[in-house]
Fold this protein.
Amino acid sequence: MVRLGTGIGWRPEIADAVERMPGVDWVEVVAENLCPGHLPESLVRLRERGVTVVPHGVSLGLGGAERPDAGRLTALAERAEALGAPLVTEHIAFVRAGGPLTASAPLEAGHLLPVPRTRDALDVLCANVRIAQRALPVPLAVENIAALISWPGEEMTEGQFLYELVERTGVRLLIDVANLHTNHVNRGEDPAKALAELPVEAIAYVHVAGGVEKDGVWHDSHAHPVPRPVLDILTDLASRVAPPGVLLERDEDFPERASWSRS
Amino acid sequence: MTAIGEAVRAGSRTRGAQPVAEGVRGAVVESAPEVPGADEAGERVRERVALAQTALLSALVAGTPVPEGFDRTRLGIQARALAAKRAGVVAKVAPELPAVLGTAYRPAFLSYAQSRPMGAATARTRWTSRSGPC
């Protein structure tokens, strides 16, 4: 597994701060925000300095009922090539529905929604991951998402679902410890149990982010400081395996640089 | 970032002490069989998953009835979160709307959005910080 080190989510709004920040081994960039023909100058400068750049896709919908779109896969592959990335990442989620399989109008969520942890949904996810792996020039890692809602009639825990997914496809995992915390608050799922059940050897890297609790619901905002429970889950994970990379996600409400490098 | 480094170091000190769940130890992650052309999900399975996901998403963005077994309160929170996110995307792509409507923009958009699910074009811009990179 490629050793990535410590990284931060690159966003155009914080490009200057990221370039100046000490100790950044690598960055992750939302794949859909990039044009491989003209990469942002800041990213080119980081690449020249030897900083690894990993494209992070958000729109494939690998957990959706439809096969992943060939055009979207080609676009993701082009971005991986343009950045010389050692891997690409996406999410275990569905982002659209309707369409030909249901003979209804296509619907877009504009957001990552949880897939039901059932045998059916796992079969579809595994098939879609294999299609994506064949289309991509580098290994794929997929991320556990944060959910507000639970599906009725689930047949597996998060850890069991991830274990089978890895065993059947060889896909790597991007484990988001803030999302494990979110699912703890919102769905009563135990992060330690998930970590004990999932194949930690498959972890490519780890996401860490802040969020906020409103009326008993945890919102994975990426706009608040990283709370102690999230750091504790990271410590638990690191007690089980040495994560090849750890990345801080901060999308909005950027604090002053001084307080930020401390978070 | 300092706190993150400390959290990882704290964990590495106790590495090896954690019990590993039965069956996990032997996980083979580097050598899954590669079967070109294999698609183990049949069309029937895809259809069942499609129907379930469409019923849920339709309840969230098109106001259709909540499918059986879901928590209505949570679905309401999720539906409002999706609509708010969409309002934010539209405000970024068409800043003249909030500029002209001011505080009336959000309630006006949310009421418009209730009966009109998002189109593919807005969905594409949702993921990008501006109107698209290429």
